[in-house]
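User: Let's play a game. I give you a shape written as C-alpha cells, and you guess the letters that built it. Ready? Here's round one.
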C-alpha cells in the first residue's frame, strides 16, 4: 500500500526532516510524453556489469550517465556522455520549479535509468558516494509508468513507506535524506516502460 498518493498541486511535503518533497506536473503532459519517447529512442542505453562478492553481474535495468563529471560506484568508474538537449530542458525545468518553491539547486550530472517493465529494478541503496558531498540534494524526475519508490529508515525508527512517482513528477531528496534513509525500486507486476532521471551535483577537480 502506498503511504502517499500523487498530488497535482505545486508541491507536497512528504517529510520535513529530512526534506522529501514531490512536485507534479513538471513539464506538462504533452511535453512529458515527447520527452519519454525521445529519451527512449535516442539515448545509447547500456547495461553495465557490477562486481558483487567476486562475480560480475549485469544490472537489472539499462542506464546512461550524463553530464560534466565522472562518477564512481560499486568499484567502477563511469565517464559521462554529453548532455542531450531534452535532458538539459528537463534539468532546467526542475531547477525552475524548485526555485519557485524557494529551494536553490544546481546539478551538473544525471543518472538515467530505463526500466522496460515491472521486472527491472534497483536494489536498496543510498546515493552517498564521496563525490556527492556530505549532504547531497538529488532531484528525481519520472517519465512513464508510475512505479513507487520504497523508502526505509536506516535506524528503523519508523516503518518503511512507498512514494508514488507519477509520469511527469519531480521528487526532491533534500539534504539528509541519503544519510537517514535508503531507497529501492522493487519489482512490480504489470508495469510498463519507465525512465527516471536523478540529477545531482558531482564534485570534481
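Assistant: Ready! My guess for every position:
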Amino acid at each position: 500500500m502506498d503511504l502517499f498518493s500523487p498530488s497535482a498541486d505545486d508541491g507536497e511535503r512528504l517529510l520535513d526532516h529530512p526534506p522529501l518533497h514531490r512536485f507534479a506536473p513538471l513539464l506538462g503532459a504533452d511535453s512529458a510524453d515527447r520527452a519519454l519517447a525521445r529519451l527512449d529512442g535516442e539515448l545509447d542505453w547500456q547495461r553495465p556489469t557490477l562486481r558483487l562478492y567476486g562475480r560480475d553481474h549485469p544490472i537489472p535495468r539499462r542506464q546512461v550517465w550524463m553530464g560534466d563529471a565522472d562518477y564512481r560506484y560499486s568499484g567502477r568508474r563511469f565517464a559521462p556522455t554529453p548532455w542531450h538537449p531534452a535532458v538539459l530542458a528537463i534539468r532546467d525545468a526542475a531547477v525552475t520549479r524548485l526555485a519557485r518553491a524557494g529551494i536553490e539547486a544546481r546539478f551538473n550530472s544525471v543518472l538515467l535509468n530505463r526500466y522496460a517493465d515491472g521486472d527491472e529494478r534497483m536494489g536498496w541503496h543510498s546515493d552517498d558516494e564521496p563525490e556527492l558531498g556530505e549532504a547531497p540534494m538529488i532531484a528525481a524526475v519520472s517519465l512513464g509508468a508510475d512505479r513507487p519508490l520504497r523508502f526505509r529508515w536506516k535506524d528503523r525508527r519508523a516503518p518503511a513507506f512507498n512514494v508514488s512517482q507519477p509520469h511527469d513528477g519531480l521528487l526532491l531528496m533534500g539534504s539528509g535524506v541519503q544519510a537517514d534513509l535508503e531507497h529501492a525500486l522493487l519489482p512490480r507486476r504489470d508495469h510498463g516502460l519507465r525512465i527516471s532521471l536523478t540529477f545531482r551535483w558531482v564534485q570534481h577537480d
